[in-house]
Amino acid sequence: MAQREDKDYFEKHFINFGNDYNLWLSTASALFQASAVLKESYDEAYERPINSNAGDMIYENLAVHNPRLMLCAFSIECHLKALWLKQGKILAKKGEYVGPKYHDLEKLADELGIKDKFSPGEIHVLKVLTWFSFKGRFAISSNSKEEQKGYVWGIPEDDEIFTSILRKIGTEIDNLNNK
């Protein structure tokens, strides 16, 4: 298959796709669904008795915990970027990504003007997920100070708070849709 060389074509589509809030929501949904698959694997590790024959398999299931939370963080980030677009801001211009260059979920919520809608527990989960957005990809954090945070995920409490955060962002988007 021949590669298309039309720079204007790609720039136009990049801008259109980058500023399409439905595409950001679709990506957010796909990331959430992928995190749910990993959660099932993680949960299975606790349903089987631990013995020497199954030890390796249980470790593999537990090892998906950090990547699962990374996908949860990415899902929230994409939801927040969809809200960014619904607020009339842009993420792509002249063939470049021009949105926030950070992945700090609390900071992004603050910049969107919705941080005050979250409870202290939800703010904590945003911080935890921001941390896992790196720990799900890399063996170490970006520096020793970040590594010392050593956030943990409380199950099922933090899963419920995660769902609450998604609902609140969805409500914000719905409110803008109804204007």
Question: What does this entry look like structurally?
Answer:
By secondary structure, this protein is an all-alpha fold. The chain has one domain (7-177): Nucleotidyltransferases  domain 2 (Four Helix Bundle (Hemerythrin (Met), subunit A), Up-down Bundle). The protein has helices at residues 7-18, 21-47, 55-62, 65-86, 105-111, 120-135, 144-149, 157-177, and strands spanning 92-93, 96-97. Strands 1-2 form a two-stranded antiparallel ribbon. The protein is globular and about 55 Å long. The mean pLDDT is 89.
Largest sheet: 2 strands, antiparallel
CATH architectural designation: Up-down Bundle
Task: Bin the helical content.
Answer: 55-70%
CATH C-level category: Mainly Alpha
Provide the structure class: mainly alpha
Beta strand %: under 5%
- Can you tell me the CATH superfamily? Nucleotidyltransferases  domain 2
Q: Reading side by side through the largest sheet, how are the strands ordered? A: 1-2
In short:
This protein is mainly α and 179 residues long.
What structural keywords apply?
mainly alpha; 8 helices; 179 residues; Four Helix Bundle (Hemerythrin (Met), subunit A); two-stranded antiparallel sheet
List the helices and strands and how they pair.
Blueprint lengths: L6 H12 L2 H27 L7 H8 L2 H22 L5 E2 L2 E2 L7 H7 L8 H16 L8 H6 L7 H21 L2
Helix pairs in contact: 2-3, 2-4, 4-6, 4-8, 6-8
